Amino acid sequence: MIKKRKYPLIYSTIISLLLLCLSSAFGFQVSETSSGAEIMWNTNSVTYYINPAGGPSNSISAINAAAQTWSNVSTSSFTFVYGGTTSNPKYGENDSINTVSFGPMNKSGVVGESLRWYNTSTGKILDADMRFNTKLAWATNGSSNAYDVQNIATHEFGHYLSLDDLYASLDSEKTMYGYTNTGETKRRTLEQDDIHGISYLYPQSQNYSLNLIISPSGAGTITGSGINCPGICSLSLTPGAQVSLTASTNPGYEFSGWNGCNSTSGANCYVTMTSNKTVAATFTKILPDLTGQWMSLSNTCKNTKKGVKCSLKGKMNVQNVGIKNAPSSIVRYYLSENNTYDGGDIFLKNVSTGTIQQGKGKAKTFSNSFSAGITTGGKYVIAVIDADNTVEELNEANNYIVYGPFPGG
Questions:
Q1: pLDDT tens track for 63-100
Q2: Which residues face 351 on adjacent strands?
């Protein structure tokens, strides 16, 4: 049977005598199933992903620092592995993806919470998620008016490990103490009983850990003997063990390469365990990528009875440097006082690109005549490719193509 267990962290202002009386008399407390089996991971490393949406600036660094605090315990073999960011909004689902996220929680007094899925017979943890309650103020600099992300994350990663909350007054300096308050940062460092807890659950061993990362999350899979990632993404292996891994793509992606292997052959990676190792398989989303280059652009100005009249004429090569054909989109041209596109630029015209095949380009003619008195000297023409953002691209930052300044300014 699979079961979910919640571990909320509570405001310090709601301590009750009942909770104090029920606190463990030991220096640390381990979660157990109803039958008495200790709840814990059956691996010495766990990969987690961060969804920083809704959190304060520098949240990722703060969360990673919290995880590293536990990984640095020299008497334990356990390691937290940062798998990267994710846009996955799910929380508390048994999907084999351990996430840390921010979001509103309609639970009185709860600052943050960890949810774990585990097997009720064996106690094996299958999935763990963490959430920070965005109905409260958060910061990463120890501000007295907000809850500190690293402080709370260090406590919640203790729940990932299967350490329970402690509520006795003698436990108040420990990371696993069950109450907190704004401005608190003391949980960023572990007390000796916290260290005893992780060392009890995951004692130091002579085996090496192999940790696997799929980047971006959901792009593909890594398989091998005893490995099926996502799902099983880490193993504890004896020194000298040789591991063969294979990367496979999910629809919409292609395999880009490996990092951390001793040797590779295409989608295959070969690792010899001479130390703890992290191996990453990188995938690229199959998308077009539109950019461009001015082939020519001339500026002509003439004196007329109505004043100086200027005109522009040239060609733009719109290119698709991506790995998928690009549907038709709009190139929008502007006259600008500088080489940066902004809301004050003068719109000139739209030109349709038509479909552009991957690795190909199309030469698009551009011309524009200005009313008398509008001069072009010292100014720029900016072409904004896919101006309406109708094409999802690998790189959205290379769509601004500038020509200029024209002489005569």
A1: 999 999 999 998 898 999 999 999 988 888 899 899 99
A2: 331
- Residue 336, domain CATH: 2.60.40.10
Give the full edge-to-edge strand order of the sheet including 268-272. Answer: 227-229, 220-224, 242-249, 268-272, 263-265
Using alpha carbons, select from 233, 228, 279, 281 the residue that is nearest to residue 256.
Answer: 281
DSSP SS3 for 186? helix
Within-domain flag for 266: yes
pTM: 0.54
What does the buried/exposed string (b/e) look like for 260-299 if buried means 16 or more CB atoms within 10 Å of the residue's CB?
ebeeeeebebebebeebbbbbbbbbeebbbbbbebeebeb
First to last CA, the chain: 77
pLDDT above 70: residue 340:
yes
Pick the closest to residue 257 from 293, 228, 282 (CA basis).
282
- Report the C-alpha gap between 341 and 382 in whole angstroms: 7
Unique residue bearing structure tokens 């991506």: 322
Q: Give me the CATH number covering residue 113.
A: 3.40.390.10
Structural domain boundaries, residue 20:
2-201
pLDDT in tens, 271-294: 998 888 999 999 999 999 999 999
Average pLDDT of 366-374? 91
CATH code (residue 263): 3.10.20
Sheet holding 45-51, edge to edge: 79-85, 45-51, 98-103, 125-133, 110-119, 2-11, 179-180
How is residue 146 annotated by DSSP?
A: S
Residues listed for the chain = 409
- Do 320 and 240 sit in the same domain of this protein? no
| 409 in any annotated domain | no
Average pLDDT, the chain: 90
d(CA 65, CA 72) in angstroms, rounded, equals 10
Residue where a domain terminates, one of 267, 285, 303 = 285
How is residue 93 written in tokens?
A: 């689902």
Cis peptide bond N-terminal to 216, omega within 30: yes
Contact status, residue 107 vs residue 113, Cβ threshold 8 Å: yes
Concatenating the DSSP letter of every residue in 297-350 gives EEEEEEEETTEEEEEEEEEEEEEE-SSSPBPP-EEEEEEESSSS--TTSEEEEE
